[in-house]
Queue: 2 jobs
Job 1
Amino acid sequence: MKRSAQRGVTTFSAGLLFGVGLCVSGMTRPSKVIGFLDVAGAWDASLLVVMMGAVGVHFVAYRFLIARRSAPLLADRFSLPAARGIDLSLLGGAVLFGVGWGLGGYCPGPAVVSLASGAIGAFVFVAAMAMAMFVTGKLMAVASEGRRAGREGRRS
Amino acid sequence: MSELEGGARLARSPPQSVLDDVWMHDFTPVASLIGGALIGLAASLLLLVTGRVAGISGIVARLLLGAPGGRSWRLLFLAGLLVAGLAFRVLEPAAMTASPRSLALLAVSGVLVGAGTYLSHGCTSGHGVCGISRLSPRSMLATVTFVLTGMLTATLVRWLGAGV
């Protein structure tokens, strides 16, 4: 099998495994997520255990298998996020995300998986999320383009 | 019982004591640990083999806004998520339940999640699982922020009561 096909199979399998993990852990049940986030009600710590399991495995794999490599197994290089500082965008964005998550009980992963259940709420959420991502992305692009043009204008 | 509380209390046996009512009725540590481990395994597989981060908000955003690295791998990953969902729909449909919130509230929630995850460049998978595992200070801070904010919001929603 060609390398690119092997990558494709692995990528699909990773998505499948991820989705299975979300379903098994109960994260595709917004009431369960809200049960964790709502600290005043009968508190359900399950989400914390999910994170512990996920980070537990991924931390070990990263530290002992991945970090020491100069390249992935089937690709030329790692595509890790660009190094950015801690800024208003990070913090403000995290606050907005937290509010949205606390309101609906959905975050992106479980919402996408839940589309398969046919639940209308999942479709409404994902559609709204996609729209907002698109608009925010475009607005941010226009804003940074404007800032860049402004800087160049001042130099000339 | 309001719609808000109904979701968290589905299929629960009557409390045996006062403590029952406030302490971990739906706690499912084994399923959570196993499911979490599978999520970690999936993220590790993707990163080790293809060099990509399993951050779902980023995957969706880049599909919409165009991205270096192309659309194929992102579509394949999302296809995997959906096929997993379909499998559970057939084998164990109770794994996915509807949100107890109204459609209007879900729309608002979606907008906030979309904008927020774009601005912070990540979500529970990207920052919470992948970033924290790499000991990224940004991700640790982002995760603490959105978890605390989420808790504040969900708790406030309960206190403000019906009408949502």
Job 2
Amino acid sequence: MGLELKNLYDDFRNAETIKAYAKIIKEDAKKLEKPMNIMEVCGGHTHTIMKYGILQLLPQNIKFVHGPGCPVCIMPKERIDHAYVLAMQSDVILVTLGDMIKVPGSHGSLQNARSKGADVRFVYSPLDCLKIANENPDKKVIFFAIGFETTTPMTAALLNAVINKDIKNIFFHINHVTVPEAMAALLSDAACNIDAFLGPAHVSVISGSKIYEEFPRDYAKPVVVSGFEPVDVMQSISMIVKQFVEKRCELEVEYKRAVTHEGNLKAQELIEKFFEKAQNFRWRGLGDIPRSGLRLRDVYKELNAEVIYQDILPTQEINDHKLCICGDILKGKATPPECSIFGTACKPTTPVGSCMVSSEGACAAYYKYGNMI
Amino acid sequence: MCLSIPSKVVKIDKETNLATVDTMGVQRDASLDLMSEDEVKIGDYVLLHIGFIMNKIDEEDALLSLETYREIIAQMDEEDRQRVILEDDNCANRAF
């Protein structure tokens, strides 16, 4: 029997399969010695869990702790302000992906900057910068790069194109971060109560499942790398529960159709060519996590907007509004409904924190799907 | 943001290093810059992310997963059937 494209969607969303796994999990969970907290690292998984009501399908002794896998949510205000300041330069076209447009910095969002006359463009692909630069030869196109390992190779591909085609008016502000360091930082937080991880799907496609080996080995925490569809998530939860019942602690891959141990080596080579680990990156909510951010290698400093514009880019760390508990939410210490301004002062149309703006943010997920609870 | 979508490759342009992919009827171009030369063929299922092909979907593994799901559903059905029979065995209104 052949595989059709619709199988890759429908069959991994099949209600009967979801119900079957719910039954299996329920039976196995009876043998758990104590309640279990699973952290789904990736915001996309938070959304699947909320959208398909997976919380309601699980027994009471299995809970989710929502992780910081939302690149917009973890962007500290001072970096958003960098984007704002760069956008306000009259000869700059600031280009970025997705939700960055609406995230509030201390002066406002990039959307606010646009209403003040800044040229800010939202693109589907980093390669769209090439067309923008070509059509605006007298402007400086600055690509404000965000994202985890999934998105970093695409920025690297743009860097490659800029160098190969000798393009003079594209520059980069790099805000790429890496997942394993954040996972380790969370585990070292004494208040953190994570028993196992649901590993990110598409970070793992690029990096390979090899990046999680340290977790079962050094931290005694199982990791199951899961696809994004609800059947994937249910199967992964089942695999985690079985590990606990059978007293195993391993790295497993549920998302076998897309994730290998080694990952995409060509993508990794491209990343290695242009980037190195920065000493620190300050994550919103989690604080400084050493070697969790990427910077452009010095040999490419002529393309580095952070170097070129260092005189005007603010350096002071800026904290969030005092009522915003995105920090605790990103650490898995609180859930969105526990925030005093959730759904009132802070809504998708008037976000106070990034977790409400981003399509992968926990607050946005709870707001959109939470009525089902 | 990392939500990438499975698509089928319908055309490859070696000059521009772009592939045309079909996602449930919608066609778009995607860069092959992250794939090795000749790695992607027409008819392959691939994962797309922000304008790039990230990897190929392993058809065999996908089919194995689907087979696993069929088996657990069959097993559930069998257990349900047996349970219904057992409950029926305790039925007081049996004619025989």
